[in-house]
Design brief:
This protein is of the alpha/beta class and 500 residues long. It has helices spanning 6-19, 24-42, 57-71, 89-101, 138-149, 189-192, 212-217, 227-233, 259-270, 286-292, 334-343, 355-363, 381-387, 394-408, 443-456, 461-487, 490-496; strands at residues 49-53, 76-81, 105-108, 122-126, 153-157, 180-184, 202-206, 222-225, 248-252, 276-281, 297-300, 323-326, 352-353, 376-377, 411-414, 420-422, 428-431. The protein has two domains: 6-218, Rossmann fold; 230-496, Ribokinase (UDP-N-acetylmuramoyl-L-alanine:D-glutamate ligase), CATH 3.40.1190. Helix 2 crosses helix 3 (57-71) and helix 9 packs across helix 15 (443-456). The longest helix has 27 residues, at 461-487. Ligand NPW binds next to helix 1, helix 2 and helix 3.
Length: 500
Amino acid sequence: MKILNADQIRALDQSTIQNEPIAPINLMERAALAFVDWFVDHFSDKKTTKIFCGLGNNGGDGLAIARLLLERDYPIEIYVVRYAPRESDDFMHNHRRLKLVTDSVRYIESSDDIPSIRHNEVVIDAILGSGLSRPTEGIVKSTIEAINRAPAMVVAVDIASGLYTDQPNTSTDVIIEPDYTISFQLPKLAFILPKNGRYVGEWQIVNIRLHKRYIDLAPTPYYYTQARDARLLLRKRDRFSNKGSFGHALLLVGSYGKIGAAVLSARACLRSGVGLLTVQVPACGYAILQTAVPEAMCLPDTDEHYLTGQSAVDSLPPATFSTLGIGPGIGKNPGTLTMLRNLLPTLEKPIVIDADALNLLSEHRDLLDKLPRNSILTPHPKEFERLTQPWANDYQKLDSLRDFAKKYKVVVVLKGAYSAVATPDGDIHFNSTGNPGLSTGGTGDVLTGILTALLAQGYDPIEAAVLGVFAHGLAGDKAAEKRGPVGMTASDVIDALSWT
Ligand SMILES: NC(=O)C1=CN([C@@H]2O[C@H](COP(=O)(O)OP(=O)(O)OC[C@H]3O[C@@H](n4cnc5c(N)ncnc54)[C@H](OP(=O)(O)O)[C@@H]3O)[C@@H](O)[C@H]2O)[C@@H](O)CC1
Ligand SMILES: [K+]
């Protein structure tokens, strides 16, 4: 699913009006109805609902929502925040329609007009929407502050008033802090960014049938991966396939004290469809790995505690494997750095790089130029910061991510809520699955195993990253259903992996 910017959203509105065709006021009615359908479902107990409207089309939506809720016998109070002398045409139209059914529209012009809001009430925020062009001030700001202080549930129409759709707010901006945001048709970039969490709450998209062809043709670097997108990427297996059809992966993982990372990545790799798996671990991990993961072949390194790339038994050169995954639990021993230094120039096919392998890259930046093209890097934000530089806000972080992926021609998976997959072409795919339970040791090792398996099977690296991150988050969601986000472990995530 695409994420469009504020200008494109405005153009999409116009394109729908011209091409469907539909009168602007009817499109607003459709949006209001979609909001009300959601609202009636979630707030069926008909508490007193205070609707705060601005003077633009977001306010127009609010007035239409008020009329539709009145028709459904909700106890409604309507407040129009009069911050400017002019209203939009569709606001005016809905104002006239509302006046036909109620004469209790109240106006907020000074702080004295702001009503008190009680804890058992619901607030609908329709003051400002995607047309926000400057920070809130004056009576708009005071009204937002009063709503934020109130103990009531708050539902934002389309986007919280005061929050920009696709550019950074400053730390002094006054913005609605909703419990829910109900947005029209497409997610907004602002919803996905960590710093905006309290200005978004739980968000949901409602379909208002905006012009599909416009959306299909609109250029954007931002995508949001949902189940249907991931399903399209998943390959079917041929009945006549054999284990040779799904590649032979090599995992270079583990060090003394961190053989668990090797076990987790190996088990996840096997659960993600790899044909054959060889795992190279320091000698101290040999018996553990052979016992814990009997499906994998094991190459003990000559070093007892760290990977050096030398094996005591006959082994294939790394370049002959379909792909390799390197990093989980390896540490930063000088011997391991030498292994990485010797290894990278011999490789031509994309590989997966995680954890301390990333930290070695950030400490020895000349290695970045040696990465095989289209390799997948999986940093969490701190690791990514070490690879680049600190950012002032989430938008700068996205720019940094895009620049890095383009410069080194790699796919970067920035892990976190809505993990972002940046491609060498400059696109960013945000993931929709996952939960805070995934912030626990070992889940990153699981992701490395998954991505290595997908590359071994011949998936294109961008598709592997988008699909793998989605499947990892989905497994996390299933594990959380069973154990709760507090009780789940990385092993539960592996057990919950499914590829259907
Ligand atoms: N897109 C779609 O498909 C659909 C969209 N719909 C709805 O339309 C909404 C967008 O409507 P909108 O464009 O009228 O913008 P909105 O935010 O209501 O008001 C803009 C006005 O506020 C002003 N203003 C700006 N900042 C301000 C500030 N800080 N303090 C005070 N004023 C400020 C601004 O002034 P200006 O920048 O022009 O000087 C302008 O006059 C969208 O969120 C959704 O709810 C649905 O109805 C149908 C389908
Ligand atoms: K709003």
